[in-house]
Structures are given as C-alpha cells and as structure tokens.
Write a structure and sequence with these properties.
Radius of gyration of chain A: 26 Å
Keywords (chains A, B): DNA-binding, Repressor, Transcription, Transcription regulation
GO molecular function, one term (chains A, B): transcription cis-regulatory region binding
Largest sheet of chain A: 6 strands, parallel
Distance between the termini of chain A: 66 Å
Order of helices and strands of chain A: HHHHEHEHEHEEHEHHEHEHEHEHEE
CATH architecture of the largest domain in chain A: 3-Layer(aba) Sandwich
Low-confidence stretches of chain A: 365-372
Shape of chain A: elongated
Largest interface: A-B, 52 and 52 residues
CATH superfamily of the largest domain in chain A: Response regulator
Pfam families (chains A, B): LacI, Peripla_BP_3
Protein name (chains A, B): Transcriptional regulator, LacI family
CATH topology of the largest domain in chain A: Rossmann fold
Mean pLDDT of chain A: 93
Number of domains of chain A: 3
Strand content of chain A: 5-15%
Number of helices of chain A: 14
Oligomer: homodimer
CATH class of the largest domain in chain A: Alpha Beta
Amino acid sequence: MRKATTTIADVARKANVSTATAGRVLGNYGYASETVRKKVQKAARELGYRPNHLARSLIRGETRTIGVVVGDIQSPFYARIIRGISDVARASDMGLIITNSDEATDLEEQSVELLMDKKVDGMIVSPCDTINAAHLRAAHEAGIPMVLIDRRVKGLEVDSISLDSVGSARAGVGDLLRAGHRRIALVAELAGTGGMTIERIMSSSPPGPPDINYHYPSWQRLLGYLLAHHDAGIAPQSDLICQVKSYSSKVAAKKAVEILRSDTPPTALFTADGVMSAGVMAAVKEVGARIPDDISLLCFDDLDWMEFMVPGIDAISQPRKQMGQMAARLLMERIADPTSEPRVLDLVPRHVERGSIRQILTTEGVNGGPDA
Amino acid sequence: MRKATTTIADVARKANVSTATAGRVLGNYGYASETVRKKVQKAARELGYRPNHLARSLIRGETRTIGVVVGDIQSPFYARIIRGISDVARASDMGLIITNSDEATDLEEQSVELLMDKKVDGMIVSPCDTINAAHLRAAHEAGIPMVLIDRRVKGLEVDSISLDSVGSARAGVGDLLRAGHRRIALVAELAGTGGMTIERIMSSSPPGPPDINYHYPSWQRLLGYLLAHHDAGIAPQSDLICQVKSYSSKVAAKKAVEILRSDTPPTALFTADGVMSAGVMAAVKEVGARIPDDISLLCFDDLDWMEFMVPGIDAISQPRKQMGQMAARLLMERIADPTSEPRVLDLVPRHVERGSIRQILTTEGVNGGPDA
DNA sequence: AATTCATGTGAGAACGTTCACACAAAAGCG
DNA sequence: CGCTTTTGTGTGAACGTTCTCACATGAATT
C-alpha cells in the first residue's frame, strides 16, 4: 500500500544521469549510448519504474485510447462488433472506452462529449440520428478521427463500414418469392426519423429514394423487400409491412401476432434485425404456428439459437465481428493518416439456409427456387 | 480543423484575472466572488473553453475512469453484466474501459496492466484464476480499488459479488429429483484449475470441500448437484457428470450427444451455464430427442431464446444486469472509502419454470414436486 | 487606534513526462 | 591544425491543470 510512485527523476538520480537522458531510454526516443542505456534500465528495474501515461499523453497529445458508442452493448449484434473492435485494439495496444446511446440522440451526445473529454485518439460510432447529428459533425470538424458503423450520416464524409442491406434483403426476399410465397410480411423497426415514410419509399417505381443510404438499416431492408417484389413483378401490399417503430421485441411480438391472426395472414415472415426476430419467434409461439408448415421465416442477422431450433431458422448472416475489426482498422489508419480520402465500405451478408422456408408449389410451378 | 485549444490561461487573460482565479471558478474549488465568477464564465463561454481532463487527472491523481476485465464481452452473460456496470458508470459520469481475458491468465494480466497504465480509479474483474492471481494481489497491494464479480480469489480480501451457485443448483436439481428424475446428467465446464477434481469433491459425505467458494462457479454447481442428491438420499453416479473442460459449446454438444446416445441415457439434463446450454440444445437436436418427452432440461442462466422455444426451457435465472450494477456501486463506494471492511455479496437466482421438465411418476409416487 | 478575522485574489510551484536547444567530446576531413 | 560533422548528454521550458502559500482588502472586535 505504498503511495510512493517512482518517476523518471528518481531513476535518473539513481543512475547518475539527467532526467532527459533517463527519459530518452525509458521512452525510447532520441540518442542514448549503450552503457547509459544499461545503467538506466537497471535502475528502472530496481526501482520498479512504470511510466505515467497520463503525463505522456498530456504532452504528446495522444492517449492510445479509442472510444466506441453503440446503441446497446448487450444486444448480440453490438456485442460481437465490439468484440471485433476490442481484438484489434488489443493488438494495437490501445485502450477501449465503451458507451451506449440507447438509440437516443441526447445520450449519444453525452457519450461523444465524454469521449472527447477523455481525449480519445478516435471514435467508432453507430449514429442514432443519420440526418442531423450535429455533435458528430462538430467532432469531425474538430479533427477527431471517426468511423461510422452500420449506419451513415448524410453529408458527413468520414470512413464508414456497413452492410449491403438493400441488396441482401432483396436477395433474401427474392428467395422467399421464388419458393412460391406471395404474402410475405416484413417486421421492421422503421422509426420515423429523417422524414422517411412508407408512402414515400413506395411511391416511385422501381422504388428507391436516392438518399436511402442515410437512413436506418431497417428502411434499407424495406427497400430491398420492395425491390424483390418489383423484380418478380409482384405488387407489394402495404398491410403486410409491420412498422414496429421502436427497437423492442415486445412490440414486435404484438404486431406479429396481429398480422398472424388477421383474416389474410402471410405465408412467410421476414424480419429486419435480431430484436425483431426474437419478437417474431415469441409471436409464432403465442399463436401456436408451426415452422415451416404454417409459417415460413427468414431473419436478418444470424443469432446463436437459430441453429439449434427445430427446424433451424433461415438467416441472413452479417459478419459482425469482422465489421468491428474492419472499423477498428479503418480508425487506426485514419489516426495514422488524417488527410487521406475517407473510405466507404460495404460488406455482403449471406443467406444461411436451415429449413424454415417452405416450398410452395404455385400454379405456374416453382420458377427458380433456392440453390439447395 | 483548428488546432488551437483554449486553456485556462486564455480565459484568465480575457477576463483580466489570474489563472489561479480562473481555475477556481472553472474547476469550482476554492473562493471566487460572484462578479469575478460571472466574468470568467462569460470569457470561457466566448472562447469555447473545455477543461483538459488529462491535466486535471495528472495533478488530482484520479481519472474518473473505471476498468473492467471479463472473459468474453460477446457472451450474453458478460454483456448484460457490463451493461449494468455501464449504466452506473454513466450515472456517476465515469468512463468505462473494457477488456476481455478469454479466460486466459496471461491475457488477464495484460488487461490489468493496461488498466493500471491508464490509471483507472478502480477495476471490476472476473478472475480466470481463482487460486494464484498474483497480478490481482499485486494490484490490490498497490492500493487500487477492486471488485471481483462472479468468482472470488482465495485469500484476496476485496469486495465481491457472486451468486449462490451451490444453493441454487442444489434447489434446481432438487426440483428435477422431486419431479421423479433419477438419472440426471450434469453438463459443466469443470476445468482442472486449482487442483479441484471430481473425485475430491465427491469423496466426503455430505460433499463439500471448505474452499469451494474459491473455485469456478461450475464446480460450485457440481457441488449443488451432489448435495441435492445427498438431500434426496440418492447416490450420484459419476458417469452422469460431463466434464467439458473448456468453455465451448461445440465440445459440450459432443459430450452431450455421447451421453444421450449411451446405453443408459439420462432422463434429464442440467447445464451449468449458457455456453453449455447452447451446446446441449444442439445435441438434443442432433439426436432428435423431444423436450420434455424424451429428455427434460434445466439450464443455469436464462437466455433470451429459452422463452420462445416450444416448449420453453426451464432456467435458473441470474440477475446479470443487477450484478453489474451492484459491482459498480461497490466499486464507487470503495473508491470513496478505501479503508472500510470489504463486502462479500451473494445474489440469489430463481428457477423459471417453462415446461421443459417432465413429471415422472415413480413407484413410490411423486414426493414433493415443484410449486406450480 | 490596534488587532483580529473572514473574504478574495495572485504568484508560482507542483504533477511526470517530452521536446527544443545548447553544448561538450570525439571523429572525420582538407 | 582548424573546421565541420557526428554522437551523446544536460538544461530548462513546455503540456494544462490544481494547490499551497502569501497577501491584500475591509469589516468587526478589542
């Protein structure tokens, strides 16, 4: 319980050199002869010297710490991403400060403020507001390296890594259509931020507002859903779109039960993320439907339990850990070179087939059908 | 992209006061008259002054940051715990540095070292070595506030929060026995650290080595399993104990398949944690057994999917988030008062019944039976 | 009028590093 | 031998705070 922390000055005194010299060998920068180096290291070892990173950071202007702000660290989606980030951070000998925003702008602002106060060398953010995000623009303006993950912010030109949500939803729903499904319900958050509405997105043909990349992934997945219908020449029905509006399994379950119990229930469900998937599973259990006989299911994001359900649940699998790793690497490179052109990356998820999709023989026969 | 960071000196100059005075009002410590206070605050606002926490930390000797080291942040168990910690940290306006140990001593040592380098005000650790843990003893010796979570270290007298693993496993397995099960398999990690062996733990009657609290929770759950048998006057059979030895679903699944396919399969399975539970579910699927008709199931740790499986899976539910919150609060209090007696807390999990346990009518009838 | 006392303020030294610079000694070069 | 260059070390000023003093005021008390 000794309070005496040994400093460079102590080491220098013991080794009979100046603090500057001792500093040079201990911080290894600048010249130092072999003999002096030995002497200083010996003294440091004997005194149990440990450099004070605070003082070093103060003068060097870098903390070797990066910050992360995500929606909710306990969701499997973010937890894996963070694991990926953490691995890269450890490999680079960097600390990792983590905060959650609970998908609320004010908490996200607080988080960013905390990270800036801690003088992180850079931050990885999953922004909850993709249109305004004044605090992120300010942080970027202030020159702090930033990488966006899963979502992008309109007009904010920083590195980012996301998924091809539109394309993979399009392909996944396409698989459902090719399996003969004609009434496919979409269960998605589709929160009303940024002025996007279901009407707006459905109004053009083919559907696709130009700024779709700056909206929540759930909107992109809706677009993919609509495009798949367009591809197949089938008119989508707006009563099959469950707009959950909040990021909640409970609400998703409620909505899903409603649609499953309606007079004209869907033959398949497509969920836009893991939270929705859990809600839908609860709904399926509540109405007592069997998969895939009564209802087919395709979920965005592959969760552990989907593999050992009987039958297994088809999923669009996102490389979550890899996303985290790449985000961290992008950030490291950005820190090393703040001026280069920002990079915008998109990963491609894949459809994992497990048997939760029933093949329906349509009158005109199955055209296409999944690979398996 | 301006590099000019405005300091207390700038504010002081603009407000025509000394840096000391400006420091007093901006850091609010010491005297400052109302007029001066107003002047300084105005100047600070106009210059957009933001205090440099690095410099403050250097001199004050506190960083307002706490560190956490857990096994793996992407496991639902730790993810929830961290969420709980994070909530309390945010409320206390503290930063949170997170690292994973992957249950390996050397990585844990690295993590602790990182945290000490970052000069955290305290740390919460889920130790992977409950016997030696020299680095934890050293950190404690060095006076840094520490709270252990989920596991304790022998002879290390610090605050800790765990679960009553022995008691709740004993109760849970007791429920299985009361339901008439006589061949109950335990699937648990039971890694061979610290010299504990199945033989040793089974050798006394009633079972229970005195230092059980300083072993992994899986050993404690084994003890609960044995005690439940002892309570019921039934001799446990060592061939029903699956020692997975690593923290891996895959291996757990393999072991579980073996025992399910043996000549004398169990009628019920008891898993010691979430990882084992996932493995067991995969095994049940692989052998094509139906729950609860062919095999009953009781899992330690309640995971999301257990609720919407058909039937639901009985679980011993651990208050994970609450554990995190309490750990963080313990740490805050320890930081505030480093000298008081360490507190050793145990939370009590509860058995959530969902229908994965079949009632077996024994020849002598069901004696007792669950509450429901 | 002299002494206390609370209330403010400022000068300057910490905190533990790094960094710019000066400078001495040794070495290279004509 | 004088000159530059290299190699190595020390001095002292940063970095941006907080903290310990000293020291003014002016009011209250003796």
